[in-house]
Amino acid sequence: MTSTKSVVIEVEEGQEPADVIFRALKPFNLLYSQRRLVMEQVKKENVPHTRENAFIFDQRLVVDNETSYQYQLFDDGSEPIDRLYQFARANKLESYWDQLATAVFPATCLQVLCQRQDPLIWTGTIKRENGTAFGVASVFKGQEPIDAVDAFCQVHQLSKRYREEILKAVCEEISCLRGVPVVYRKKVDNESGVTLGMVEVMEDEELTDALTRFLSSTALSMEEPRLREYFFQDACGNPRIKCSKPFTINYDNRLVQS
Question: The whole model's pTM is what?
Fold first, then answer.
């Protein structure tokens, strides 16, 4: 059974309708699109207003104890973390991003619904040769662009050639560190639950080579044959992973190619 709640919104002279609507509807956790419906009704009734969006957050930021910035957030339907990142880029504060996000982001999420923590750093509509759109590709901060582009291409069954063209466009705007995607990624914990590292298999790489690379940089406390068996069972069902090379255990108990 669903219950229906009602709220009376009264806009007094001199008040901004958008601010009043936001405060009145905040307890109901409504979507931005639902708040907009109320604002559109207010406009139809010719209620005086000077802006469309509610003013919801304001904070003065001081960098290196000398330069100050004023960060303001309006209820315009954008994801709060994206607005904060845009502010950082516009003011050349990207090198302070971690501190900025820690200081500001939690406070903004007390005022408005936040649906993710990683900012969007690139987005673009990918089109077919006839001009129709496949969809929108997105890259988030902390994500290597080739991995995001590859995931998009896998969903839309696009060729490597098409992927390379998309990646070239992306890398003209943001930093790209590699041109080959990770096709398999799995965290490895020891028997005490301590994370030892991440096994990553690159496109066209043998699982053998990826595990050898992982083991060469990791001190393991578990039996390596168990690790080998687990990854062969877990990863080799993926058609993008090569599993043609076997393993043997050498004298110092490390996995090597036979």
Answer: 0.82
